[in-house]
Amino acid sequence: MLNSNKVKLAIAPIGWTNDDMPDLGAENSFEQCISEMALAGFKGCEIGNKYPKDPVVLKHYLDVRGLQVCNAWFSSLLTSLPYQDTIRAFIQHRDKLNFLGAKVIGASEQGNSIQGKLDIPILKNKPVYTEEQWQLVSKGFNEMGALAREKGMFFTIHHHMGTGIQTSEEIDRIMEMTDPDLVFLLFDSGHLSFAGIDPVPVLKKYVHRVKHVHLKDMRKSIYETVKSQNMSFLDAVRAGVFTVPGDGDVDFKPIFEILSQADYEGWVVVEAEQDPAKANPFEYAVKARKYIREASGL
């Protein structure tokens, strides 16, 4: 069972409004989102596009609801823009998160990602890094890791569908090429499952380098449709390939056991993007909270 003195439970706003497809949840306001997060029993959240940009204003809204920002997505563009552009953007992002009290920064290399391209099947044609790109990405991640540590924060790699860090072999390579004292892993059960990878061995291998956890379940029947119809990532999300833990086909108990045995300390975040018109965000947040309590003791 997870130690509630060391592990905190958060939820991402993507269940209320999808930043990549703003029509999904366009009707849901920022205040509704964070109020329902708190009402469902979560103590933290990540940041969405509807959140106030001013960190002082945002902190007030969250403080009165007993919520804490635990992380926010950072798009690294090392493979598409000049190197220093990403470093400068990262420093701004780091400083905002540091003000908000977050200890983790989750980054994904998006320079040549296909995750947002509606005309490309997500299970085909993913980017594959050249040797030069591997060197560039690892160099940038190491530098961003050092910049995070300057503020007492942890830089984590978010392996993600449609990117050059998606498979278990690619995760292995980037972990080997980066400094274990500076660069950590954001373990995402949903993206491993979607990639056709059992998340359990990956977590076992890297649990002592994991500083942040994303939990999302997957509906295998819809996944099979995604494969057979060559759907894009965003179309797969719209179709309902993901759901909250306990509502799909992934067994989370071994994941919780590994985290418990390793004495994991940090945040566990429900991040399950769906169409809010089909999956009421508050109801699914409550469902996730109940399942995680029963399965992990958290």
Detail the topology: elements first, then pairings:
Elements: E1 7-11, H1 30-39, E2 44-45, H2 55-63, E3 68-69, E4 73-76, H3 83-99, E5 104-109, H4 131-150, E6 154-158, H5 168-177, E7 183-188, H6 189-194, H7 199-206, E8 210-215, E9 217-218, H8 220-228, H9 233-239, E10 242-243, H10 253-261, E11 266-270, H11 281-296
Parallel strand pairs: 1-2, 1-11, 2-3, 4-5, 5-6, 6-7, 7-8, 8-11
Antiparallel strand pairs: 9-10
Keywords: Cobalt, Lyase, Manganese
Domain Xylose isomerase-like TIM barrel: 37-294
GO molecular function: manganese ion binding; myo-inosose-2 dehydratase activity
Spatial order of the strands forming the largest sheet: 3-2-1-11-8-7-6-5-4
The SSE order reads: EHEHEEHEHEHEHHEEHHEHEH
Low-confidence stretches: none
Q: Which overall shape is indicated by the principal axes computed on the Cα atoms?
A: globular
CATH architecture: Alpha-Beta Barrel
Radius of gyration, in Å, reads: 18 Å
- Mean pLDDT level: 97
Assign the CATH class: Alpha Beta
Assign the CATH superfamily: Divalent-metal-dependent TIM barrel enzymes
Structural class: alpha/beta
Helix content: 40-55%
Number of helices: 11
* Count of the separate structural domains: 1
- The end-to-end span amounts to 7 Å
Strand content: 15-25%
Record field, number of beta strands: 11
CATH topology: TIM Barrel
Major beta-sheet overview: 9 strands, parallel
